[in-house]
TrEMBL record, chains A, B:
Complexes and interactors: Homodimer.
SUPFAM superfamilies hit by this protein: Isocitrate/Isopropylmalate dehydrogenase-like
Catalytic activity: (2R,3S)-3-isopropylmalate + NAD(+) = 4-methyl-2-oxopentanoate + CO2 + NADH
Enzyme class: oxidoreductase
Name of the protein in question: 3-isopropylmalate dehydrogenase
Role, per record: Catalyzes the oxidation of 3-carboxy-2-hydroxy-4-methylpentanoate (3-isopropylmalate) to 3-carboxy-4-methyl-2-oxopentanoate. The product decarboxylates to 4-methyl-2 oxopentanoate.
UniProt-annotated binding residues for Mg(2+): D226, D250, D254
Amino acid sequence: MATRNLLLLPGDGIGPEAMAEVRKLITAMNEKLGTGFATEEGRVGGSAYDAHGQAISDADMAKAMAADAVLFGAVGGPKWDAVPYEVRPEAGLLRLRKDMELFANLRPAICYPALASSSSLRQEVVEGLDILIVRELTGGVYFGEPKQIIDLGNGQKRGIDTQVYDTFEIERISGVAFELARTRQNRVTSMEKRNVMKSGVLWNEVVTATHKAKYADVKLDHMLADAGGMQLVRWPKQFDVIVTDNLFGDMLSDVAAMLTGSLGMLPSASLGAPDGVTGKRKALYEPVHGSAPDIAGQGIANPIAMIASFAMCLRYSFNMVAEADRLEAAIAAVLDDGLRTKDIMSEGKTEVGTTAMGDAIIAKF
Amino acid sequence: MATRNLLLLPGDGIGPEAMAEVRKLITAMNEKLGTGFATEEGRVGGSAYDAHGQAISDADMAKAMAADAVLFGAVGGPKWDAVPYEVRPEAGLLRLRKDMELFANLRPAICYPALASSSSLRQEVVEGLDILIVRELTGGVYFGEPKQIIDLGNGQKRGIDTQVYDTFEIERISGVAFELARTRQNRVTSMEKRNVMKSGVLWNEVVTATHKAKYADVKLDHMLADAGGMQLVRWPKQFDVIVTDNLFGDMLSDVAAMLTGSLGMLPSASLGAPDGVTGKRKALYEPVHGSAPDIAGQGIANPIAMIASFAMCLRYSFNMVAEADRLEAAIAAVLDDGLRTKDIMSEGKTEVGTTAMGDAIIAKF
Ligand SMILES: CC(C)[C@H](C(=O)O)[C@@H](O)C(=O)O
Ligand SMILES: CC(C)[C@H](C(=O)O)[C@@H](O)C(=O)O
C-alpha cells in the first residue's frame, strides 16, 4: 500500500491537545489496519511566530504542499494580539488556504442526536439538522487588493479592503456545491447581497448560469445573505447545501455551527481542485472551533471536532469511506454511552477529559 | 406649537398597509393631543420605479431633506427583480441614507414577554432580551468605490466592491454607541474582523481610542464578528450595546432580530449628526422586516414594527418621551390582551388583521 503522507499542524491553544488524540488514532489505525499513514509535524500560528517570527515558515509551507493532506488544529490567542498584522497567527492559516488554492471549504452543521438538548434553540428546531455550507475560501474580501491602511494626515486614516470575485471562482465553487447536493437532498441555496454588492450581482448571475448549463437537475434557490442568517435561526432544516462567498460563509457557518449546540464537534474540509493527471486534490482539515486559549492546557478540550475532521480526511483525501463511516459511528457511540467533555456536559452524563474521550473513540473504532 | 413635518414613504409590499395604521395614529394624536404633525407623502422603491423610473425621485428626496423626520415602510419584491441595478428598489433606501447622512442605525432587539414562546430559541435564552445594535450606515462596502463589474474578455467578468472606513466615521458611530450605552447598562461590544480586514484593524484602533479619550466610564469589549454571530445565538443576553460596521451590522442585526421571535415587531431609527446650530438631526424610521410581498395586500401584515418605529421617531426626533413610552406601553398592552396578527399567532390567542391591530393600539394609547 502506498504511503499516505499527512502533515500535522497542531497550532495554538487547544490545538495541540486535540491533535494528540488524532495522533493516537493514526498510530492505532496503522497498527491494526496497516493503513500506512506517515506523519510529519509543523508549526503554525502563534507558536510558529514564537519559534521563528513567521505565522508559518517556508519550510512548513513546502511540507504542506507536498503532503497528501494537512491536519490543522487551531491558531491564535491573546498572547499574540499585539504582533504585527503580517505575522499574526491567522496569517499562517490564510497562507495555507491561498498557496494550496483550497477554494472549497465544506462545513457540515450536524446536530448530534445526543446533543440536541444542549443547543440554545428549541429541540424540534435543531433535532436531526444536517446542512452543509460550501464556502468559497480563496477569494473575496479576504484576499482582494488594495488591502491597506492609508494615513490621510490631520489624524485621519483610511482602512480599505477589496471584495473581488471572478467568474471562474464562482463557477468552480458552485460546481462543488451542486456536485455535493447530488449526494444529499439535491438542493442548493446560494446566498449573496446582490441588492447592495456588485460582486453579489455577478455571484448570482454565475451560479444561475452554472446551474442551467450543468446542474439543472438540482433544485436551486437564491437568498439574500442577511435573510439567510435569519432563516438559519428561524428554521435551519429548510436548507440542504448552502453556497456562499468567503466572508458571508465565515459568518453564516459560525451561526449554523452554534445552532447545533455541537460546536466542539464540528469538522471542516478545505479542498483544492483535482489535479488534471492524478485526480488528487490538495486538502486541509480543521475543526470549526477556535484555539480556546481560556481552557488550553487543562486537558478538558473536546477532541471530537478534530477527530471528525480526520474522518473527513479519510473520506475526501483517501476515499476510505468505510473507515470514515466507522469513525463517525464511533463518535456517535461514545456520545450515546453518555461520555461528555466539559463543553457538552449535562446532567446524568459522565464527564471525561480530552484523553479519555480520545481513548474511548479509538476503542469503539 | 411649531408644526412637526413628517414625510411618509410607504414603499412596496406590506409597507403601505403598515403605514396606513401610523397615518391613523398621527391623525388621532393631532386631534386628541394637538401634536401638530403635518404629513407629506412620497414614493420609494418599486412603486416609485413604476411611477417614474427611479427608486426615489429628486422631488421626493428634497422633501425628505426638508422634513423633520421620514417614516419609511419597506421596499422590493420579485416584480422588480430584473430592473437595472441603479434603479432597483433598494437604491431608493440607500440614497436616502447616503444623501441624508444617516450614519447611525439603531436596531433594538427586544423580546416582548408575550412572545418569548414564539422564538425558535429556548424561552430562557431570549426572555427579557433587550440589546441595541448600533450599525454604521453610510460607509463600508455599501458605498465604497470602485463598485463595478468589469468584462475581462474570454467569458470572464470581475465583480468588485470596496470596503472603506475613515477615522472620523468610526469615531462618530462609536460615540453614538457609547452615549446610548450610558442610558442603558453602560456596556459596548465592538465587532469587526481585524484578523482578516484592514478596515477591521482601523475600526478596532479608533473605537479603542475614542473609548479611552471620552468614554472610559463605559465598559468596552471587542469581539470578532463571526464569533459575535455565534455568541448572539448562544447567549444573547451577554450583550448590551453592539457597535459594528454597515455589512456586519446588516447580518448581525437580522440574526438578533430573529432571535427575539418578534421580527414583525422590531423598529429601527437611522440618525444623522445633530446640526451645529439647531441641534436637530435628520432621521428616518423604518421597520426591520422587509416588504413581505407574499402576504402583501391581504390585510394580515403586522403593523407593530411600523408603529414602534413611529414611537422611536417621537423619542429621537421630537423628544416626546412620555408619548413614546405610552405608545410602547399600548403595544405591550394589546399583546397582553392576547391580540395577535398571523405572523405571531399562537394557540389560545385572538388572531386579528392589520387594521384591527392598529385600531386596538390606538384605542389603548
Ligand atoms: C481564523 C480566521 C482567519 C478564520 C476566517 O476568518 O476564515 C476563521 O474564522 C474561520 O472561519 O476559519
Ligand atoms: C434593503 C437593503 C438594502 C437593506 C440593507 O442591506 O441595508 C436591508 O437589508 C436593511 O438591513 O435595512
